[in-house]
Design a protein that fits this description.
alpha/beta, 3-stranded parallel beta sheet, 12 helices, globular
Length: 344
């Protein structure tokens, strides 16, 4: 058996795509590889039966620093992000690994599935909820949608959908009113379990949308999880979108993303010395500190996309009892926190 260690220190979303490559490698070459990983998101690999502890100093071990040059063809070629590392592995090892599923792979232990959610810990009862991420990383401000519009979405579904806000504290996640606030209270594994319990997800193009596709749904529920993604024109839809998601993009609607995603990083320089401040990486069409491609997506567009899941019979809105049960856990942000403005 060939021994293989795969290394990558990118963001959790990238590591989630690597889980798909490991899955597909073993599916296409059963019994031919022993695999281990060295990554920046170890919690994504918990309980993964495809990993075998290997030592880097073992002379039989092949160690690969994984990347995905396929992204440079994402605008012209019919590939999805889930195939990114697979093509790299095929090229390096002369393999023919074929993707088996359009999603990453997460393994939940039966004990994890039996635990109640962080939401139920607060509400003391099982209340259906949607996870919402209303911000993003400072590295990529071009992915941000206006937080006021996220608030309009939450307000529209008051009494119908209970939203749970998530996000890392060192990223930009302004507080929303009328939500259960779990910002800064979920590590990667806790977020995985929260998504497992979630009815649906609302976010931009981020790790959370990939989790929405990769994490299984609860027993007896639908096989796929609703997800509405505010995407704009930064990334080509065929590279990011999942078939069962509502992927709201504007690729092709503006000259800057006429033939595919622009892949710009920021709307304005951050002054942090990053190459993302270089003119080539800045959005060329900014409206109210948002890329025009994001500004073109209205709160009504997101509302309508969410409503489709309910009109189509995928889910039912909250009952009055469920809504009332959630209210003690809903925290209203202070006036000071509400006034947090977007980075200039």
């Amino acid at each position: 058996m060939r021994k293989l260690i795969l290394k990558n220190n990118q963001s959790p979303g990238d590591i989630l795509m690597l889980t798909a490559t490991v899955r597909d490698l073993h599916a296409c070459y059963p019994g031919e590889f022993l695999t281990d990983v060295r990554t920046s998101a170890d919690q994504l690999w918990q309980h993964n039966p495809r990993l075998t502890p290997l030592q880097t100093d073992d002379p039989e071990v092949i160690t690969l620093q994984c990347n995905y040059p396929l992204i440079h063809r994402s605008n012209e070629s019919p590939y999805h992000f889930v195939e990114a590392f697979t093509e790299f592995l095929n090229d390096k090892l002369s393999l023919h690994v074929v993707p088996q599923k359009l999603a990453g792979e997460i393994h939940l232990h039966p004990k994890e599935k039996a635990w109640i959610s962080q939401v139920q810990e607060r509400t003391k009862t099982e209340v259906p909820f949607w996870v919402i991420a209303a911000g993003g990383k400072y590295d990529f401000t071009a992915k941000w949608w206006n937080s006021d519009r996220y608030q309009q979405v939450v307000d529209h579904f008051h009494g119908k959908i209970q939203f749970v806000q998530v996000g890392e504290l060192h990223h930009y996640h302004p507080p929303l009113r009328g939500v259960i606030d779990l910002r800064g209270l979920t590590d990667i594994r806790q977020l995985v379990r929260l998504v497992y319990h979630a009815q649906g997800v609302v976010c931009g193009v981020t790790f959370l949308m990939h989790l929405a596709a990769a994490v299984e749904t609860k027993a007896g529920k639908e096989r796929s999880r609703p997800c509405v993604v505010v995407a704009g024109g930064r990334e080509p839809p065929q590279w990011e979108a999942y078939p069962h998601h509502q992927f709201l993009h504007t690729v092709g609607a503006l000259s800057c993303c006429e033939k595919g995603g622009c892949w710009k990083s920021r709307t304005l320089p951050m002054g942090d010395g990053s190459e993302k401040d270089a003119p080539r990486n800045l959005c060329v069409d900014v409206v109210d500190r948002m890329p025009r491609c994001m500004d073109m997506i209205a709160s009504e567009d997101v509302i309508r996309a969410i409503e489709r899941y309910f009109e189509g019979g995928r889910h039912a809105y909250l009952t009055s009892d469920q809504f009332c049960a959630a209210q003690p856990a809903v925290r209203q942000p202070s006036a000071q926190s509400i006034s947090t403005s977007m980075v200039q």
